[in-house]
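Question (not urgent): is this output format expected?
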Amino acid sequence: NVTISLKEAYEGTSRTLRVGGEKMKVKIPAGIKDGQRLKLKGKGRSTLSRGARGDLYLTVNINMPEEYERKGDNIYYDHPIDLYTAVLGGETVVNTLAGKAKLNIPAGTSSGKLFRLNGMGMPEFKNSSNKGDLLVRIQIQVPDKLSKEEEKLFKQLAKK
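Got this back:
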């Protein structure tokens, strides 16, 4: 078994392994899924009867960050925004696997609302030019401390 990061699963990576005293470099293609097995032809143990080496199967595990969820080639990402942006609208910067992307948040956005960023999800296994989507799930962060002025304004709004 080998464990890789989500970013490594997105980009593809390699690992140097020691199998039966022999070092070998294994290429892990972009888009691999958690628990997927790679077949390394002729890299297994020799059979007693024929002497030929069998195949070695390597299971790849992905260390998935808590704020991400993968469904096929689509990635769901929980993205926090402040209460003011949710109410008034605005722009937020989202961390994607390819870097940062700007996302416009319309006024009145609720917690749990999904925004789809086409082609910014995981690449297809063995066809990395095709990518799934990144679905940004909004999580509104309510302030835990308010200034006296903010508290006064919220109380005024609550009366309307």
